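Field: COMPLEX_INPUT
Field: COMPONENT_COUNT = two
Field: RESIDUE_TOTAL = 234
Field: MODE = joint
Values follow.
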Amino acid sequence: GAVVSQHPSRVICKSGTSVKIECRSLDFQATTMFWYRQFPKQSLMLMATSNEGSKATYEQGVEKDKFLINHASLTLSTLTVTSAHPEDSSFYICSASSGRRSYNEQFFGPGTRLTVL
Amino acid sequence: AQSVTQLDSQVPVFEEAPVELRCNYSSSVSVYLFWYVQYPNQGLQLLLKYLSGSTLVKGINGFEAEFNKSQTSFHLRKPSVHISDTAEYFCAVSKSGSGGSNYKLTFGKGTLLTVNP
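Field: COMPLEX_OUTPUT
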C-alpha cells in the first residue's frame, strides 16, 4: 500500500514553455502533498506544501508564480513550471501523507527529471 | 528551525563488512528522525524512523539506528552490507508533534554508500 506515482518520469522542453507534473496517491487519500527539488548529487529541498482544497504554502525563496501548485483532490496534486528556463532543470519529487495526526509518514513518488533546453 | 549534518558524503565498503553512516542534527525543539534510501533516478524509501520510546530503532533491509539525544546524533548501521545496498542515504528531521501541513522534513546532504565486491 501507500503508493505514489508521478507523471511524466522524464520531460524535455524548450526554454519558455510550461511543463505540468502530476503526483497521484494511488491507494490512499493524501490530505497533504509536498513538492521537493533535487539538484544532482545534492539533497532534497522542500519547495512547497499543499493541503487539499487550499492554497499551497511555499518555502522562502521559491517563486509561487513560477511554480504553480494545485491540489484539487485527495489523490492528485500538480506542479506547473511556467516559462521554464535551463536553470529550472532538476529532479522534482513529490510526497504525500494522509491524516492530521502528530505524525504522518510521507510516501514519496519516483520523481520527474525535467530538462529545459 | 532544524538542520541535519551528514558527515560523510561518500562511504565505500566491501561486501559483508559492517557500515555506519553518521547523522547529527540541530533543533531547539523535540524532533522525529528518519533515514531514507534513494536508488538512482528513483524517489525515496523510508528505512526507519524514531518517533519516541526505545532509542534503538530497527528498520528494513537489516538496518538499524540509535537516537542519542545528548550527542544529537542518529547514526545508521548495518552489520553486513550487500552489493544491493549501494545507494544514496538521507537523514531527515522534523519537529515532533507537528500535524498536517506543519509536518515538514529537513534533509541532510546525503551519503553515497558504495558496496564493492
